[in-house]
């Protein structure tokens, strides 16, 4: 019987090893875990949309050593790096408002009234008559520019037999912004992130990066909708506006997201 059992075990192992891209939970781990590193890019740190120039006056670079410490000390099964990746004519840029002035809704502020950080309302002349509410930001994270690059001090890890790495570009449709790493803002087009995380059997995600009340928030909200156990690591995030940060985090808590500190992560892995 021993030889038979050994043969069965070898056969099961062979079948299991043949399954591509599947990461199985470690024996002592309750979950397969992913770290989502959101938009740690030059433009949000010392560039055209630096947080230090926003109402919060946060120092975006402060997230980098915290994230690097996490990458060094915690064995995440999957690590995701996201980047805003906008076209030069992107809808989110205040400077591009004249390109779409004819699409402003009747109940939107006029082109003459709108300012940077205001919300414009556009109605697109398509079969859905899509209505888009868009914050107008300074030009930022334009494709193939320095400002769109991940900050040089951020640790960039590689895939290996114990860890998969995903690089995800978002916001590259010129007429639709994409704060979340999972969906565009209109929820018309889904990114590949959910399918790839499910392919790796991920059940739990930890979210860090920039900005807490914009892309971190949107990514966490959609992670919850997709059924992931979701944590925001607060000391590894920085945001745009303190009041909005508090509102967004409370909203996420109401949806089941947990707010933790770096020191809490190891006990949850």
UniProtKB/TrEMBL annotation:
Pathway this chain belongs to: Cofactor biosynthesis; nicotinate biosynthesis; nicotinate from nicotinamide: step 1/1
Biological processes annotated in GO: pyridine nucleotide biosynthetic process
InterPro entries: Isochorismatase-like_dom, Isochorismatase-like_sf, Isochorismatase_Nicotinamidase
Coiled coil regions in record: none
Keywords: Hydrolase, Metal-binding, Pyridine nucleotide biosynthesis
A molecular function GO annotation: nicotinamidase activity
Keyword Cell cycle in annotation: no
This enzyme's EC code(s): 3.5.1.19
Domain Isochorismatase-like: 34-263
Pfam families on file: Isochorismatase (PF00857)
Keyword hit for rRNA-binding: no
Catalytic class of the enzyme: hydrolase
UniProt xrefs under Gene3D superfamilies: Isochorismatase-like
Family recorded in the similarity comment: Belongs to the isochorismatase family.
Protein name according to UniProt: nicotinamidase
Source organism of this protein record: Adineta ricciae (Rotifer)
